[in-house]
Amino acid sequence: MKELWEILKRFASGDESIDKSTFKTIRTLLGSFALYATIAVAVAIIVYAIIIRNRDEDHLAKSRKTIVGVIIGYSVGVISILGFLEVAYQIWSGDINKYYWMFIGLIALMIVGIVVTLILKKKQIKAYKWVALAFAVAFVVYAIALAFSVPAIDDDYAPLDGQNWQMTVVTVVLVAVIVALSVLGGKKDDGYDAKALTYGAICVALAYALSYIKFFSLPQGGSVTFASMLPIILYSYMFGTRRGLVVGVVYGMLQFIQSPQFYQPMQALLDYPIAFGALGVAGIARKIPFIKGKMLAEFAVGATVAILLRYFAHVVSGYYVFSSWAMEGYTAVSWAFVYNMFVFADLAIVLVIGILALSTKTLRRTIVEAQQ
User: Fold this and answer.
1) Which of 6, 46, 167, 346 sits in a 20 to 30 Å window from 176, CA-based?
2) CA-based radius of gyration for the chain
3) Rounded CA gap, 279 and 59, in Å?
4) Considering the entire predicted model, what is its pTM?
């Protein structure tokens, strides 16, 4: 924190020696601070909940509202501050292109839709479902328009002649599989109550903070982080695949803000909302008969299925958009499969940490209570 404070003082004083690497250091330090702060907030809330668990119902009701407000406010604050810093950094360093803002518009549409829907539901306005549907349709139409009206930033990133339609068909099939799994793994009453909203906010904030702890990053995008996918996967396991899909897409959009890699519109959709939205189907394993009720097996199978779907999203993007960047000795297909194998390192980290965490009685009890 001392290093961060010194850099911020230099920045505020107009120190001209601050360069791109210094700005990057600020991002990294703030990301690490956000991680520890998020963990501290989560622990504090758990301790507070334990202390007040035997109070009367009126007191508990007021406390729950306070906790929900604190978590949502904190989560929005963390994401807003880090997101603003990322956008400022991209603008200042000149690393973004004109199409970046089109994708930001898609993100803004999604956020406004979610916020408006939640407000209407909170006010018990019955039309909130139709409003949510209208925003969902607008989001899909915007994404389709973006995919088919915006060219690649360079010919090297454009699909080869005749492959545009192939990429579209494969992407549609992949999205259909993800949506089908989310529907099959969900429940009819998968609405967003206070509990689901609270956990969703803290899981997205924690995942976003964890994504700053990177073991390494790849040149054309992709990195291995310290279990940044785990909160989204656990959320899907706890609250179902329908809610998980929404939270995964939100997280994918935030990943674009954090590390925007926009070379071709379909590639951006595949590598962000589709790939990370796939994490939301992790809860599908709760529907598999022969492992139903076995928490560790359900988690491991669900996480593997979800991350494999993310892997295939990146492979499709890699084959059609990054084929010209294949290393010598590899075909476009083999290079897409090899390059994106970093996802399996992430899978291994998620499984190890997730299984260790689920071995504790406290977390297991929390999950059981959330699923009720």
Assistant:
1) 346
2) 21
3) 36
4) 0.80
CA 204 remoteness from chain centre = 7
Instruction: Specify the pLDDT at position 94.
Output: 67
| Residue pointed to by tokens 């039309």 | 127
Question: Is there a contact between 237 and 299 (Cβ–Cβ < 8 Å)?
Answer: yes
Low-confidence residues of the chain, pLDDT below 70? 1-24, 26-28, 31, 35, 53, 60, 64, 68, 92-95, 97, 161-162, 187-194, 362, 370-372
The CA distance from 331 to 341, in Å, is 16
At residue 337, the pLDDT reads 93
Q: What is the 3-state secondary structure (H, E, C) of the chain?
A: CHHHHHHHHHHHCCCCCCCHHHHHHHHHHHHHHHHHHHHHHHHHHHHHHHHCCCCCHHHHHHHHHHHHHHHHHHHHHHHHHHHHHHHHHHHHHCCCCCCHHHHHHHHHHHHHHHHHHHHHHHCCCCCHHHHHHHHHHHHHHHHHHHHHHCCCCCHHHCCCCCCHHHHHHHHHHHHHHHHHHHHHCCCCCCCCCHHHHHHHHHHHHHHHHHCCCEEEECCCCCEEECCCCHHHHHHHHHHCHHHHHHHHHHHHHHHHHHCCCCCCHHHHHHHHHHHHHHHHHHHHHHHCHHHCCCHHHHHHHHHHHHHHHHHHHHHHHHHHHCHHHCCCCCCHHHHHHHHCCHHHHHHHHHHHHHHHHHCCHHHHHHHHHHHC
Contact yes or no for 262/147 (Cβ under 8 A): no
Instruction: Compute φ and ψ for 191, nearest 5 degrees.
Output: -90, 180
Sign of the alpha-carbon torsion through 319, 322, 323, 327: negative
In angstroms, the CA 178 to CA 269 distance is 14
Token pair recorded at residue 12: 């505020």
Strands 214-217 and 223-225, sheet pairing: antiparallel
Place of tokens 């829907």: 117
N- to C-terminal Cα distance for the chain?
Answer: 41
Closest CA to 186 of 301, 283, 279, 275: 283
CA 247-308-261 angle, 5° bins: 65
Give the per-residue pLDDT at 156.
Answer: 76
| C-alpha torsion 246→247→250→251, nearest 10 | -140
